[in-house]
Amino acid sequence: MAEVLAAVRKCLTGFPAEARELHVLECVPYLNVPPSPLKFFREWICPNRPCIIRNAFSHWPALHKWTFSYFRKVVGSKEVSVAVTPSGYADAVYEDKFVMPEERLMPFGSFLDILEKKVKLPGVFYVQKQCSNLMAEFSELVGDVEPHISWMSEALGKKPDAVNFWLGEATAVTSLHKDHYENLYCVISGEKQFLLHPPSDRPFIPYEFYQPATYHMSEDGTFQVVDEKGAEKVPWIPLDPLNPDYIKYPDYAQAKALQCTVKAGEMLYLPSLWFHHVQQSHGCIAVNFWYDMEYDIKYTYFQLLDSLTQALTHS
Ligand SMILES: O=C(O)CCC(=O)C(=O)O
User: How many domains is the chain partitioned into structurally?
Assistant: First the structure.
């Protein structure tokens, strides 16, 4: 039995390097114009490779209209949902729990007061609700962008499941995770730093199961972590790729991250199942399109890799 386990471990730890040699580039390449649907499907979606596309949305009015004073005029009095955390980490592991942000409803103008440092409140604030909040909460802004990206919708034969609006403080960080979406991430102003791992790095990326909980701010401005009663434990990545704990997670030393900065006017194609950790400049404005992935043979193989890695971790 021990020999079989050792053989399986050897296969799994050799696999990421083999995959890298075959199809992962050393850095994220740039395309200078948006591609045709067929070319994009063949060269990027199918091989599951990220790229940064320039001039993909230069016609959007948002690029010159979206300033904080315009937002105040158009949506300043609207109540929107803002994620508030003590540390800037929403949906992340904290003290052996998977802690989600307090979802605070506030007029968008009050949120902008915090961003512009006119008001100081405890916590880190980030508009990051991932339920098509652009359509649901910022419908007045939809006309400044597009409801979908036509060449991507044609390549995939479907419209996006969600179009999200992101705006937050520099201290708001998105912890390492993956999604089952083909993601077109458009930076309107400021910049985002993405740290990426291909799905094939899964054997080196730790997951553990955590009790879900939510931050709640008390009247004295301190944050409590409140368990979600009756909720099942959730698998999450405990590791901070910017400061990895190699004593606890030595395998991560063999993973190889790709880093890229997506600047205003650029669109990142972040393929499904790629692990990503995200940071931003203060007040960075972004819109992204989540297209559901195809649950095809690539997905199935990834599930196998995931289950084998999990089985070995707990053996
Ligand atoms: O911009 C961010 O902070 C996170 C983006 C993200 O995780 C996503 O688009 O899936």
Answer: 1
Ligand 1 atom nearest the C-alpha of 126 is 3
The answer to whether the CB of 223 is under 6 A from ligand 1 is no
Q: What's the domain range around 36?
A: 2-64+132-210+233-313
**Which residues fall within 8 angstroms of residue 36, CB to CB, at 6 or more apart?**
151
117: left (phi over 0), alpha (psi -120 to 50) or beta: left
In a domain, 155, yes or no: yes
Determine the average pLDDT of the residues in 35-56: 97
Q: Binning pLDDT at 50, 70 and 90, where does residue 26 land?
A: confident
- Assign residue 260 the CATH number of its domain: 2.60.120.10
Predicted TM-score (pTM) of the model is 0.96
Q: From the CB of 162, is ligand 1 less than 6 Å away?
A: no
Of all residues in the chain, what percent carry a pLDDT higher than 90? 94
